[in-house]
């Protein structure tokens, strides 16, 4: 058996600075030379938030909820993390292939750096949303202390998916087109402009409500975040159990897939 | 790093490695699914449309002691670059094992790891990080690297303004200041101008005197005679000769005169240049 597994756990120690450099470079490269620079990282998602609100909160206005913009924003922030990170991370190994051919280092650093950049955007947005929502909704409640845990689980779950997608896309180039295609319907199936309980009011079959609530791995994260910020409740045990299990599966599965597929990255890319 | 091997020592055992020959390196799911079905149904178990993989290494064993200076020679496609990339840990083996003691610095592929939009200085930082240096280690070495490269004001300009020779200077300057235990160098020296080449050779000699091991792949026999005491001749993925440079080069010159032999030994069909294992990952 070969003893060059390219990465060994012992290699991870020496590469903290590489990780830091990749994060810095990604932050800078994207908007290098632009006047607003890093602010674009926030402007884009904020514009998305605003336009979705205009569309669904003002023009279409499907279901009555108090403070509807806040109802939407508290969920949207979670969706933005998922929908921005997966494509960026999925493409990361391909776009950094020059680094892979240069030296031996733990390959997972590359998608992880992409996730780290997106996670920073997410945390900044989440803070903005919380600062607006909590006073307006009066949800300054001990439950707010749970928000960092929900956010952490959320980021880790996305990290697991990002590891798997980046390695899969390096091997099979149609993985990312598939993901981009799925993101569109996925957005509407995620309870952002509504919550699963709304459908019950409209006499939807119970099975459909359950499927929306539990069949979509993003939904529980969306609901937990909204529960805390918008309703001021602690998420129920069922939500916690789901989030912990989903994060565990994503991390273990993503790691296993990455490990299996990373061997020939320098040759493939 | 591994197995408690002494810093600077290299042990390669029965290394084999094959490369799939594909015009387009990416696979799509459809190809995999359809290809998988076809493979199963085809007699002999192989998709007839795909050429067989190129066997770059067919059982290479090398023992290199710390402070040795070793050249690897051989005709195109003999497995020289594959050997270096295996030693660098970039390409894993199909079977066999590789162990290297200490920090490895590899100059294999000039374009690899450089970003054209970033300045020379920024690329030095990333280069150092890739080799596992910490921020402090990079900062300590920065001025020495800049000085070695002799790039002057260019070091603060983006790499897209550089000539190939200037890229070589930058790449070598990083490696020269790494204090690596093992130096793996593939030909790149040839691109610099004469004065810089001499400077690099002196630098390599200094590092060897300081305890580093050198493995050099080159077609420049004079360079090999100047820098390497030992030479390994590879032919068709196997070690054909291994010994003092003078003896092995004499044999190699013999091989070169017999120019009528096909590139990859007599058994395999000639491989198109684009698929040559030597150039598996030429600059992107």
UniProtKB/TrEMBL annotation, chain A:
Protein name (Swiss-Prot/TrEMBL): Transport permease protein
Chief location category: membrane
Membrane topology classification: Multi-pass membrane protein
TM region(s), chain numbering: 35-56, 68-89, 109-132, 144-168, 175-194, 239-258
Family: Belongs to the ABC-2 integral membrane protein family.
Domain of life: Bacteria
Compartments where found: Cell inner membrane; Cell membrane
Species of the source: Patulibacter brassicae
Keywords on record: Cell inner membrane, Cell membrane, Membrane, Transmembrane, Transmembrane helix, Transport
Domain ABC transmembrane type-2 stretches: 36-261
Pfam families for the chain: ABC2_membrane
Automatic annotation (TrEMBL), chain B:
Cross-referenced InterPro entries: AAA+_ATPase (IPR003593), ABC_transporter-like_ATP-bd (IPR003439), ABC_transpr_TagH-like (IPR015860), Bact_Polysacc_Export_ATP-bd (IPR050683), P-loop_NTPase (IPR027417)
PROSITE patterns per the UniProt record, alphabetical: ABC_TRANSPORTER_2
Domain ABC transporter: 10-261
Low complexity composition-biased segments: 262-275
ATP-binding recorded as keyword: yes
Protein's UniProt name: ABC transporter ATP-binding protein
GO MF entry, a single one: ATP binding
Span list, region Disordered: 262-284
Lineage, highest ranks first: Bacteria, Bacillati, Actinomycetota, Thermoleophilia, Solirubrobacterales
Keywords for this protein: ATP-binding, Nucleotide-binding, Transport
Family: Belongs to the ABC transporter superfamily.
